[in-house]
Design brief:
This protein is of the alpha+beta class. 27% of the residues lie in helices and 14% in strands. It contains 9 helices and 7 strands, in the order H-H-H-E-E-E-E-H-H-E-H-E-H-H-H-E. Strands 1-2-3-4-5-7-6 form a 7-stranded mixed beta sheet.
């Protein structure tokens, strides 16, 4: 049974309880789309001016694509400002795990009106798969100077909290008790902490990062101006630390960080208690 106040089990049109994405994906296209589009924040409809019922803008153009193949246990939801745009405004991918948990694989929410920074491609123009296949440091520097975090091509719309509240209630309605995720960067991990997550793996690393960014620490000493991403003072903010880590300042790769949130429970974790408040993107 659902744990969140006022929440109810998710039922299909036939009245049967739905307890997994695989079960939803067996439904007909209209029914499963109607379920999955409930994950879209209300403010997204307002920003892009499209109809929650038709998923179309005033010109009749459909802005939403739901990819949820029958026989598979995942869903991908993509929303664009215009149907032919290469970039998404909203992108979320969820998947079932073998342990009856919800995996939040990806969530991207961008402001389509904001300047774009080509941090997602190499200097030669090839897709870099979140910098795993090379970087574009000139664009990264421009993005950092504009106040963005690593991997952000545009500033956000500040609606992840709206989405996550919907995702948690959705997960709860399926009878699942846990959401798991893998933060792509240091700032992602800190952000997830603010939404009540704890660590399956990586807490030791997060606490060590905070210790070593303190005055006299190993990472603090490496903020020596040797690159634009390693400037003294960057240890004071999540954004500064995240860019330095993205630049390879750690002794180990940013990898194997796994986090979880129990439905309705805030773990109360804060691995960077002394951070300076900064504008969030």
């Amino acid at each position: 049974m659902p744990k969140l106040p006022g929440n109810r089990p998710l039922l299909g049109r036939d009245g049967q309880a739905l307890t997994s994405l695989a079960a939803i994906n067996r439904l007909d296209a209209a029914e499963k789309e109607g379920i999955y589009t409930r994950l879209l924040p209300l403010r997204l409809f307002q920003v892009l001016q499209f109809d929650p019922a038709t998923l179309c803008n005033p010109a009749g153009e459909r802005l939403v694509q739901v990819i949820a193949p029958e026989g598979l246990s995942f869903v991908r939801i993509e929303v664009r400002a215009r149907p032919d745009d290469a970039d998404v405004v909203f992108f979320a991918e969820l998947a079932d795990t073998q342990f009856h948990q919800m995996e939040l694989a990806f969530c991207i929410i961008c402001d389509p009106a904001a300047p774009r920074f080509a941090v997602d491609v190499t200097e030669a123009g090839a897709v870099n798969y979140f910098s795993s296949q090379g970087r574009n440091q000139q664009e990264e520097l421009r993005a950092m100077q504009a106040g963005l975090f690593p991997h952000q091509t545009r500033r956000g719309l500040r609606m992840f909290g709206d989405f996550f509240a919907l995702a948690e209630r959705f997960t709860d309605s399926l009878g699942m008790e846990m959401i798991v995720a893998e933060p792509l960067s240091y700032d992602n991990a800190i952000r997830y902490e603010q939404y009540g997550f704890d660590y399956l793996t990586g807490k030791r690393l997060m606490l060590e990062i905070d210790r070593q960014f303190q005055p006299g620490g190993r990472l603090y000493q490496r903020l020596n101006g040797s690159s634009p991403f390693r400037i003294p003072g960057m240890e004071q903010t999540v954004r500064g630390r995240s860019w330095a880590i993205h630049d390879g300042i750690l002794d180990e790769p940013w990898d194997e960080i796994r986090i979880y949130k129990m439905i309705g429970v805030d773990a109360g974790l804060n691995t960077f208690p002394g951070r300076r408040i900064e504008e969030q993107h």
